[in-house]
Amino acid sequence: MYRFPSTLYLHGVLNDLVGAVPLPWQGEVRLGLQEALVNAVKHGNGLDDQKWVTVRSRHEVRPDGHHSWWAIADEGVSASKSAHLTQIAAMGTRLCPEDAEGGRGWFILQQLFQRVHWDGERHQLSLYKNMGPHTPPLLA
After folding, report:
1. Which residue, 12, 27, 88, 121, has most beta carbons within 10 Å?
2. What sign has the CA pseudo-torsion 122, 33, 130, 89?
3. CATH homologous superfamily of domain 2-131?
4. Where are the domains of the chain?
5. How far apart are CA 113 and CA 129, in angstroms?
6. CA–CA separation, 101 and 6 (whole Å)
């Protein structure tokens, strides 16, 4: 588990979080995690440095590749923001960057991870990525 105060100084946090990711995929995973963490800090915690962001991660190496999961939770600012994210999440892969405010970040996450799930009640974003021989890096 990784826990840090709401700040946009994410360089060290991102370095730690991508450390277990295979090198060819580190760039795109870093981009996706940065998008998710900035959203948690800005929109979830309202840039309040008295609030925390918590990241849980799990990594497994299997014959079909390296599998990674991240759960990013914020303390939440408002029910309306959570409802807005829930609405964007419900649009799923049909969402285009122009569809809604905040939709661009969701679109990026949908492109970089195989699974993206927002749980509005827990203020938690879950991400999953399989990095194996049949899933080449998007950002080579």
Report:
1. 88
2. positive
3. Histidine kinase-like ATPase, C-terminal domain (3.30.565.10)
4. 2-131
5. 5
6. 21
3-state helix, strand, coil in the chain (%, to 5): 40, 25, 35
Q: Judge contact between 47 and 6, C-beta under 8 A.
A: yes
Q: Do residues 113 and 129 make contact, with C-beta atoms less than 8 angstroms apart?
A: yes
Tokens of 96: 């285009």
Q: Which two tokens stand for residue 15?
A: 């370095």
Kindly state the tokens that stand for 36.
């998710």
- What is the value of pTM for the model shown? 0.85
Per residue in 46-77, pLDDT (tens digit) is 999 999 999 999 999 999 999 999 999 999 87
Residues making up the chain, counted from first to last? 140
